[in-house]
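Protein 1 of 2
SEQ + STRUCT:
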Amino acid sequence: MAKKIINSIDRTALTPNYAPAWFTPIKGKKSILWDSNGNNYVDFGGGIAVTCLGHSHPELIKVLKAQSTKLWHVSNYLYNEPALELSELLAKKTFADKVFFSNSGNEANEAAIKLARRYFYDQGKLEKNEIIVFTDAFHGRSMLNISAGDSKIQKTGFGPLLKGFKRAKFNDLESVKKIISKKTAAIFIEPILGESGIIRATNPFLKGLRKIADKHKALLIFDEVQSGIGRTGTLMSYMGYGVTPDISTLAKGLGGGMPIGATLAKKHIAEAFQPGTHGSTFGGNPLACIVAKKVVEIISSQKVLSGVVKKTISFSKKLNALTEKYNMFSDIRTAGLWIGCDFKTVKSSNFIQSAYKEGLIVVQAAGDKTIRLAPSLIISDKEINEGFKRFEKAYKNIV
């Protein structure tokens, strides 16, 4: 059991926009973290779906060390080999022909919107600049992305927001048909709502969006910042749906912990990004790209992807068993190793604090009853079992 010991590190120089735990991790291996007081924690949060191969993966360390002795940065007035190799790998593994690299999902989504608008601008269709977005969406924290998102708290105090967005209801095709017009440049959607608690788009809904976009000569953009890179049991979630977008975004798990984002697009659309139209100083950084390349190579293997499916079943069984034993959850939603759990009576914030005390890390979701689990895609059975022992103790401590 982890002990609540106040960390001696001075945090007063940080802005107060986060509410971090009292402990500070100083090292990690696989799905275990250790804090500065020697306490260990089973990591079911994965840095919010980022550390997809756990902590300190030996193959990622190997390629990072090798690259660190060669080249760290050249900006984008020069090519670098890791960026070229990663872009080729992503194009080979996905629908895309071209890739733009940035530093985060926030930037990747901004690039996707800019690309869609510029694509129609270059065709002389200046009126096609509106973007259809959805209820309960989250796309990032920039001004553009909070405008596209649907969180009141994330918008409050930051107005005036950006114009050009129309909002439809998630999983409701009729709501899209009512607002789409000749001004629509793109339909922008998360195939699976992450921040809202792992809520899947239905297959008929996504297929319907593809047909509507085609009919109105608009683009279909998938935000796969969280759902991509093996999280759902396929390399990208669109593959499981059988619905191909025109543009898609990646980040989170792409770097396995290294900051990197990517905007993927078909060639005829990507041509709109001519020199000077868009850029990112650190986008395509050699260190981030060499690690991301290894991440994609490892996760796209059938062994890892089939393992995600098996581990999803394991998590589901254990969560359902807890519900049967304690009447714990009102709903459990899975999208591979990306799981949303709604407590019946317990507040998620209280559970998270109790979990910390027992040496377990989980993640808050929207609302005060929901938590998210997004563990390493290669988390071991031993780590899963230990994590659920701590999960049960954490719950029993607060009921």
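Protein 2 of 2
SEQ + STRUCT:
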Amino acid sequence: MSSQIPNGLSALRFALAAIWVELATHGHTGRAPYLIIAIIAAGSDFIDGRIARRLGVASNRGRWLDGIADVTFVLAALWCEANAGVLPFYIPVLIAISFGQYALDSIIITRAAAGPIKSRLGHWGGIVNYAMVIALAFSAPDGTIAAVVHALSPLVAIFYVAAIVERAWIFYRRQEK
């Protein structure tokens, strides 16, 4: 039973994504629920792998579940924020492209046997994703923090393009071998 705790924590992010979307589509403007959801999602992402390793139940399936849960939550939250005009749509689009590339080249390179292949920029991308979600959850749509996140969006986009290029380079280098 305890072996399912890490996967349950990962799966929790799917439910949190659905709650975020539900709140946003019904026009909920209070920021406290969004902030609580974002912190729970980030916290569950931070501890699920650690718990899996401590319990000795870490697996490729769990790593995939973790990554898919992360991108589902982040894309749901950031798409809602983009839909509200707080964030440019190209940010969630670039995140989706980056994750799609990560999934495809991990499967092609490893034939899904060894799990997802990590990258330095991809790891930092996950941190940036959660930082954006938490910052936007904390800020009113017309607040200062939201304005700063929006103003930094072109730099964030450059970062995601660099992450996509890095993954392509990793893929290319592995295909050469």
